[in-house]
Design brief:
Elements (H helix, E strand, L loop, with lengths): L9 H22 L10 H9 L20 H12 L7 H15 L2 H13 L4 E4 L15 E5 L2 E12 L6 E7 L7 E6 L2 H4 L1 E4 L10 E12 L3 E2 L5 H37 L1 E2 L2 E2 L4 H29 L5 H26 L9 H12 L6 H11 L3
Parallel strand pairs: 1-4
Antiparallel strand pairs: 2-3, 3-7, 4-5, 5-8, 6-7, 9-10
Helix pairs in contact: 1-3, 3-7, 4-5, 4-7, 7-8, 7-9, 7-10, 8-9, 9-10, 9-11
């Protein structure tokens, strides 16, 4: 399964085959256990690092693959969705956390942190959302109080993907009042130093999610990422890539939903004929296929712009808005075509339906995406 608008070169096709085999050999056997544990076993992450699937765009001298082409990250996201392995949050590490380190950390920090992230020795999460603050950065209240040699962290973070697995936490904290009062920190001992509470979600149930509590937890001065008070600017700089990653996953989810539905309507018998032979069903599927192709083209354009270094905030918002909303709408229609069988709790289409509802909220809600697009148009 690949984005039709993002063509695989021979090298990319080989990478896809190898990653698909890695998922089959290493991730599938562990996936059923994550529903009953604190996330994926560390050995799976180490295996991903050893196979070269972590830190794709990190220079080789720092442990990565040195691949300056986002299509490889897109392949990773597509294959995870195609295999139904969304609990393995490798894209969070590759497309969100590692880019912050690569872009913002100083030379010594990059040498210290990137090799472990690329090797799978460090498993990361990003902690921005709080119980009373999501997309509104002005409401973030977890504090980092300056003390001799470092900072003391106090407060809570919520909806933290990889929150139970992580031992490397990228955290947004308030170091002063006002819009310039937010700073970024790396908490390397977070697994043992914070109160971690599992969060049960409607969808994406295999992906561990946690609530994290900090009680006067000390981090050294070297844990500060970038300059103090600059976090808001860093976040705005890095969010387009995160939102593009969400669009890629949403398109892959839409394509999988349609493939399942096409297989179903080809074989499901109703009054002596298949569902797929009925014009109303055929046209419904055709409309959804056309929507997917349009979204894939928009996402592919955004990928090209990212590779060229000119992906704008509005470009990424548009791709994320259309792809996530289409994923939600298509899975709803596809589940309906499955009838009662689609409503079974463990059916593939019902899992996709629940996942799709959550993906419209990730990286900023659809309303936030519309605000970004409208602002870029100077409305």
């Amino acid at each position: 399964m690949s984005l039709s608008a993002i063509r695989d070169s021979s090298e990319l096709a080989s990478f896809r085959v190898n990653f698909r085999q890695f998922l089959k050999d290493q991730v599938v056997p562990a996936h059923s256990t994550v529903f009953r544990s604190d996330g994926f076993p560390r050995e799976v992450w180490r295996a991903a690092g050893a196979a070269g699937f972590l830190g794709l765009d990190v220079p080789r001298e720092l442990g990565g693959r040195g691949i300056d082409d986002y299509r490889y990250s897109a392949v990773v996201a597509q294959e995870i969705v195609a295999a139904g392995l969304n609990g393995f949050a490798i894209t969070l590490q590759n497309d969100i956390v590692i880019p912050y380190i690569s872009a913002i950390a100083n030379h010594e920090q990059r040498k210290r942190w990137l090799p472990a992230l690329c090797a799978g020795e460090s498993v990361s999460a990003i902690a921005m959302t709080e119980p009373e603050a999501g997309s509104d950065l002005a409401r973030l209240s977890l504090t980092a109080r300056k003390v001799n040699g470092g900072y003391r962290l106090n407060g809570e973070k919520f909806f933290i993907s990889n929150g139970l697995t992580q031992n490397f936490l990228l955290l947004v904290a308030r170091t002063a009042e006002g819009p310039m009062g937010l700073s970024l920190f790396i908490v390397e001992d977070a697994a043992n130093a914070v109160g971690r509470t599992p969060v049960t979600k409607l969808g994406l149930r295999a992906q561990d999610t946690a609530r994290l509590a900090f009680d006067d937890h000390f981090v050294p001065d070297g844990a500060l990422l970038g300059s103090p008070g600059r976090a808001a600017g860093y976040l705005m700089r890095m969010l387009p890539k995160e939102r593009l990653a969400i669009a890629v996953r949403a398109d892959a989810g839409t394509r999988k939903s349609l493939m399942l539905t096409q297989d179903h309507v080809r074989t499901r018998q109703v009054r002596g004929s298949t569902l797929g032979s009925l014009q109303g069903i055929r046209f419904a599927v055709a409309d959804m296929m056309a929507e997917l192709q349009a979204n894939e083209a928009l996402t592919a354009l955004a990928v090209d712009r990212l590779n060229q270094g000119r992906l704008s905030e509005a470009d990424a918002a548009a791709a994320k808005l259309r792809s996530s909303e289409t994923f939600r709408a298509v899975t709803d229609r596809c589940l309906h075509l499955f009838g009662a069988h689609g409503y079974l709790a463990q059916s593939e289409i019902s899992e996709l339906f629940l996942d799709a509802r959550g993906i419209t909220l990730q990286g900023g809600s659809s309303e936030i995406m519309r605000e970004i697009i409208a602002s870029a148009a100077r409305l």
